[in-house]
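tool_log.txt
---
The assistant was asked to compare two proteins side by side. It first ran the structure predictor on the initial sequence, then on the second. Raw inputs and outputs are pasted verbatim so the downstream comparison step can read them without reformatting.
(1)
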Amino acid sequence: MSEAASTRTPLALLPSLAPLLHEWLPRQRWFAGKGRPLTGFSLVSATELLPLDGPGPGLLHLLVRVAQPGLAPRSGHDCYQLLLGVRRTLPPRLAPALIGHLTHGPLAGRTLYEGLHDPRLAELILERLRTPGALGPLRFDRLAKEPAIPGGLVARPLEAEQSNSSLVYGDRYILKFFRRVHAGPNPDLELPLALARAGCGRVPAPVAWYEATVPEPFTLGVLQPFLSGSTDGWLLALDSLAGGRGFADEARALGRVTAEVHTALAETLPTVTLGRAQSEQLAAAMAERLDAAAQAVPALVPHASALRAAFDAIAALGRRGRAWRAQRVHGDLHLGQTLRGSRGDGHWSVIDFEGEPARPLAERRRPQPPVRDVAGMLRSFDYAARTHRPWNPAWADRCRTAYCEGYTEVCGDDPRAEPELLRAYETDKAVYEVVYEARHRPDWLPVPMAAIERLAALS
């Protein structure tokens, strides 16, 4: 972007975009601030990837902070990555991507739309990734040992958008486009890079990525091999339930895969010991999340005291001298974060190391006991069983047992040998699920609430 364009964009363009973004952002699945009004925008960076005032479509990359009540001023505002297309006239095929029509400002009379849905604009991002280098505040990089990325790959967005957006290029690569971004390394780049260097074949290695460099570093997108023909563990589990088949063999294999990833992470990145102070901090953080969740979802209130007992037990063990090993972990492990390949050899891969996007980046990058990931997968088996009619608790129990057995076979540590820690993490995860479902899928709320009732009864 030229110096003149760089000056024009933040001073004159953002105010004209703000009314359209004010209406469009809250409707996006990946927008985290649902339920709170938007009170303003502030620009972090702006880059014209294609000229906005040229004869063809323009492409504007923005990092924008969104002000909302209840968020701390300035640094506490959520920051979002936007890729905005600009055209004089929007062709019918792009009608679903429409954001709105600009009525004032430098681009008055133009149409603003979601750039990721325009193959021509999406393919430009791949072209940038093919050749490392800087473009204004953006820096594009790639893994040196990987072969050259071919050009001419047609881009298509994945239909299911959640906390981020994804583009598939010619069934060869998938680009995760982070929406709500945070200053600092994103674990979804950091951990797969570390695992690639460790030679762990269970996680697709990043091929290329891009970041913003000012005013502080933000990881913005990661390009990885697209495992075409693979099926995620969640769909396989539901198919097993629908067909009346067991899933224990698959669960055991997933336990072994989880242990392989944990072992590689522990060998590659630093580990720490959680003593008394850390155990009390861990329990206090879980209790704080429970209190906040109970305020947001009143159905939790009758169970809060019993659930808090699981966290108090961890603090009490720490005071009696109990310590736990902590390391970098996946952070949001469940069946949907696993893929079984189509090669017929039953090869499983683990994906999406971003962690729970609602939690602060510093927390997601903090070493945790490996049992946190185990608890997430155990909750996922229960989720699958609960979504099937009739409910099949025996199916979930067999999967949970097999998963723990598979995990133990690889690393020698049985996660069931730490029942207090496992219960605390399962409880913390179920509380997170309750808040998520209440906000995004209210019809699913009975699923985690059933777990809340079971876990509360253990007190």
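(2)
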Amino acid sequence: MKETFKFLLLIIFSITLMNAQNSEERWDTYMAAYEDEKVGSTTLRMDLFDSTPIRGLDYVLVTGLTYETSKENGFPENETFSLLHKVGDELVEIVKKETDFILVGSFMYDKERLEYFYIKEPKNIISKIEDFYKKNYPDYKFYLNVKEDKEWTYYRDFLYPNEETKNYMADQSVLRSLADAGDKLTKARRVDHWLYFSKESEMNKAKTELIKSNFTVQNTDINKEATLPFELQVWRIDNVDIDSIYPITSKLRMVAKKFGGEYDGWETSVETE
């Protein structure tokens, strides 16, 4: 099973799904390369992590189809992609009739798309889904498995992105907003960053280090009611495409952590032709 694979090279993008999901749910998709350098795509509910494990939904149901494709990356072509989404919707209806559940995500990799459900009890789900595949998709090979997973390790350790991935996704989110506003992301411009620290002395150390990296200090401030009361705002002229901005924000996160603080993100102007 691919659950045991570890991320080696991150080549991720993030999109907010704008389909008919419940408005209280937050779905995202990211892509990553695995040990064999093949790319996988994970779509999942990001809003569940702090609530898991959810007691009473102690089993994970993993199921989906293997498909054919001419694409070297193993992703499906348009018609197949539509079919896989249709199958996903149909599986939801089958599970809904059998037990309480939460659909937490899907994983598409190496000509296979798997849906991940957390369910209350297996009941007759295995036989129901087997019959569904055999009747409706007899020409496709399918995967179907139910395991006890009281700690939600499939969701927390496999589907859910690690910290590095989430940071990349955060940068992509800002770039998406800029692009939506008409920015082609080709022009260098002023980029402002915010860092927060527990001690003024540590903030000053970070400030000195960032000045050496050609950042300009815009402002320092204090909010005594905050957990990290000392605010440092810096800026620099930089490019903002993902290959440029992600190394910058990664460095700022490391500097903040080095001095016991946190990096709190960036913003910039929209630059259009």
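---
observation on (2): DSSP finds six helices and eleven strands in the chain. Residues 78-98 form the longest helix (21 residues).
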